């Protein structure tokens, strides 16, 4: 059996608590001889700042590069609101994405039937919802230069951010979207603002070309990002795969997640390119929810998004799709049994702490 | 009685139809001696391109500058999807905003009680919703330079857009938001992505300063634009005034509009600065909905957003708040009577064409 090297980066807030439940699952898989994981641990975000005055240390970056997959909790919190911009908690996550070249962020927005009523949307609008948002993750306004604040005299400052996209960046994220669509409902919706942004013009043009050259069997549709956002709220079930840039993807995937009513349940995968020699690709897995400092340390956090992110690692990095299916089924079974953490509780359900939820999922497995 | 000069720019798609109902209202106000409007007419968007191969002619720009207010319909449609970028329909609207220096875009998102069920959100989430989104309209990534697509060799192109904000631009839009909040529920939520964008850092800093210096009586809150978008979907009633940049404002105001279930009902006002001498300010009023080419020319369009935008002109440009209130009341009364255009019809209501709706509102007045 192959040994897989994992780097666990719990981060801040509820990160360590939810990561604890993934650790429990890994220990069990190892003990049962189902898989062989070697885990290392590191600091990122505010916790790295507190220890080393950086958002991630060089040592932990080296471990991330050496690992077969990084499992990431969450970063940030009011405690670090006034640390210098370069070492703010989010910088650690952004550096991981950039240095590991994790250009493809997969964010499934799935409405768990047991939780459809938790959505602010009407049940009929979200029941059965299953969208995959494919967000470009290493380009756009997140990393473009110049990115500066300068003094321009007269008490005035000028802030500049730069959105940059090259053809190859759009091509490769397009391919990820089309490949995923082939295994789903065969439809891709590309979103940009071509009526205002030159990067939107190029995005639209390249998506159209990739589609015409390589994926004519998939349906490609274009929507402006603002009307796309509206359609997401109005009738989300019209979508299968949505592909969009880094900043629009940030907004739209969060909105899609909220629609499902299952924010504490949603995982994400960030993938790099496949290495021609090793056939491996760099990857990082993190829940869509943040560090939730208000409930941290109280055993209230929902570990499902974190466990489900580990499930995505099994599927996308270690080719253990069957085991991933079992993890998903265990989560669904526990939900069906009525067990709920505080964020998803409703009348007639049984309250569970972070640990109780983690243990119940393990027991199902 | 003062004479007010209006420039009507119906634009494309359903623009001319809905503008027709504003014209009817203006004619009636003039005939009754309630007000004195002088109207001029011009072309913008695709209709200007068809006539002159530009998105707005210099002559019409001159009329816009000379007018006391511009009343704008909608632009765009598939017919002009492949015209050159510089003369695409939207360019006309963007030039009007920029050259008239209409830096403040006010987009009320109000849920009409009679239409709460048209929302994809649950009634309790949106009933009574009344948000004002204040969007910066002449800065940011819409107008920043460089804004280019260049050939970088090897079959690769590079697209660049630039987001630029100076201190004064953030200050003046902040003041608009705080002033509006004072007349409402006294709360402003500022949204940006300071964890990723330098313009977000400056935006946050300047809002905080303006608040501390001039508006301590108003509550100021900051949200990241992605979680702000989530909160808008989850519990929109937590907001009073939202102030944000041009691109986030584009996305967030559309999403807020869709929440209300009343997209065809929502107006917007774009305001410039007050001239020190004349005490007047440039202004443009347009519905939030677009040109809806699919239903254009069929008498199906809902004229309420357009009429209500004219109501905002009465309020914000001509100091006729009482008359504006009467227009709003007439719209509410017609809705309460059960009359509905196709976009808002439901069981037990009476269908109306664009013209029938416009006439009914006039009759109420
Ligand atoms: C934490 C932050 C930098 C990050 C982002 O903006 O990408 C987060 O919002 C996300 O969506 O993963
Ligand atoms: C038509 C388009 C240029 C415009 C914008 O992006 O500002 C529209 O979406 C709006 O919100 O007014």
Automatic annotation (TrEMBL), chains A, B:
Residues annotated to bind NAD(+): 77-90, 290-302
SMART domains for this protein: Iso_dh (SM01329)
Residue sites binding substrate per the record: 97, 107, 135, 226
E.C. designation(s): 1.1.1.85
Residue positions binding Mg(2+): 226, 250, 254
InterPro entries named in the record: IsoCit/isopropylmalate_DH_CS (IPR019818), IsoPropMal-DH-like_dom (IPR024084), Isopropylmalate_DH (IPR004429)
Similarity annotation: Belongs to the isocitrate and isopropylmalate dehydrogenases family. LeuB type 1 subfamily.
Listed name of the protein: 3-isopropylmalate dehydrogenase
UniProt lineage: Bacteria, Pseudomonadati, Pseudomonadota, Alphaproteobacteria, Hyphomicrobiales
Gene name of the record: leuB
